[in-house]
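haha ok so turns out i had the wrong file open the whole time. this is the CORRECT one, sorry everyone. sequence first:
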Amino acid sequence: MKSIKANHSTIHFNQYCYPALNKHIKENNFSKIFILVDENTHTHCLANFLARLETNLVIEIIEIEAGEAHKTIDTCSGVWNTLSELDADRKSLLINVGGGVVTDLGGFVASTFKRGIAYINVPTSLLAMVDASVGGKTGVDLGYLKNQIGVISTPHLVLIDSTFLKTLPENQMRSGLAEMLKHGLISDEKYWNKFKDLSTLTIEELDGLIYESVIIKKEVVEQDPFEEGLRKTLNFGHTLGHAIESYFLSNPDKKELLHGEAIVVGMILASYISTQLVGFPRKTTDEIKKLLLAHYPKVTISKSEYQNIIDLLKYDKKNNHGNINFVLLKHIGKPQTDCLVADDIIIDAFDFYSS
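then structure:
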């Protein structure tokens, strides 16, 4: 698959990843290489990555704890201190090998350490390949509130090696697939239709779908890098999805949801709200619900929890002037941004999801 230029970064795929990485290291006068991993990618991915790396530079490994609960400023402080203790300087290179937590946090660490050092992302989860790989969003959570602290910053390279997907459990694959389904709903009905039968999906076909998904996001981001308008469409399902994810993260009685699991709920809710407010066909909403729930277990959300989740909407990053702004669908591939939604319609949407 042909490499993709995305603003000031280049995304390479599979067999093109490591020649591009080694060439980039040779052509730049880096002083040291630091590789950020979590416990899982240290165990399952690091050895394979190091075997492909060709350099005489000093390489230091920094490991963080795995999981969204550790996507915090405290974790950043630990990485910043480690970089400092290991004599990282402005010409150091940080390579983030991991899922979205590692690439988001690692990008933020690199963008702020000594006012910015070079970094490369090597996404190892499906979610990170199709979502975190493009757009330059970096950052961490503020308590249980998603992605409240961060900057937009571009990695030098992104390396998408789909062999890493063999290390993922099924629920992590489903989590990434949710973002790909979202890309279809907001941009391309033909792409969406490719997901209607996933039972025969091969690795080769998945590679092609990943490539298409990256292009969809790249084209949106290039037109609106700082989320002034069009880029907001990438948040379809995320307004309520993030609130649900934060609520489950903050509640010790709840099992933590993966990002994609929460976004699937958010997309079903947003589809229903779209039907109520902007004329999205009810038949299509029913089809979306049926398809998504065929692949994702239904999340139990009681009526007594609806308001707690609604209260978290005020922290959504798309909000302005006190308004909570939703992305809705007029048709598949035709999103509408900055939609205001009354609480009673949100409650009806929860009832629709749970029914």
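The chain has a mean pLDDT of 95.
again sry for the mixup
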